[in-house]
Amino acid sequence: MVKIYLENEEKTKEIGYKLGKLVEPGSVICLIGDLGAGKTTMTQSLAKALEVDDYITSPTFTIVNEYEGRLPLYHFDVYRIGCSEEMYDIGYDEYINSDGVCIIEWANLIEDILPDEYLYVELKYKEMAREMILTPKGEKYEKIVEELIK
Ligand code: ADP
Ligand code: MG
């Protein structure tokens, strides 16, 4: 587990961008944090690093948005999901097992169906700033975290 202090929005964007340079085909990034913690902000910068040209907004009502970039990006926001089963109805299995990058806002709500390996990223309010807690599951993600904090 690694903690990074994010003193302002710029820092959140910087880390998101760096992470976007490190992800690989099939990477799964879980974003956990209260409303306004910075999950979508981070996703936007990660998308920029993946050379996605579209403007990214939270897919709260559609659950998942697809983008084309250096790798395909699948941006989930599962806040409004009723139960994990609904995820399979929208093709969750295919997305997770694809060569794209999956980034899942509110992934804690579908913890029972997360794959074996992923990067768990918690964003917490620290007064006006934020703190990021990175917990890699699996060797691949441990390496990504090592690179991220270099
Ligand atoms: P979420 O998707 O988690 O609901 P958003 O990314 O939509 O959150 O919104 C995060 C808000 O917090 C934005 O207004 C952004 O400018 C701000 N923000 C992001 N990172 C930081 C930070 N490190 N310190 C202070 N404010 C931040
Ligand atoms: Mg959001």
Give the helix/strand layout.
Blueprint: E1 2-6, H1 9-22, E2 28-32, H2 39-49, E3 64-67, E4 73-77, H3 85-89, H4 92-96, E5 101-105, E6 118-126, E7 129-137, H5 139-148
Parallel strand pairs: 2-5, 2-6, 4-5
Antiparallel strand pairs: 1-7, 3-4, 6-7
The chain binds adenosine-5'-diphosphate (ADP) and magnesium ion (MG).
Adenosine-5'-diphosphate (ADP) is lined by residues 6, 8-9, 11-12, 33, 35-41, 58, 105, 128-130.
What does this structure look like?
This protein is α/β, with parallel strands linked by helices and 150 residues long. The chain has one domain (2-148): Rossmann fold. It is 30% helix and 28% strand. It has a seven-stranded mixed sheet with strand order 1-7-6-2-5-4-3. Strand 6 and strand 7 (129-137) form a beta hairpin. The radius of gyration is 14 Å and the shape is globular. The structure holds adenosine-5'-diphosphate and magnesium ion. Residues 39-40, 58, 77, 105 line the site of magnesium ion (MG). Magnesium ion binds next to helix 2.
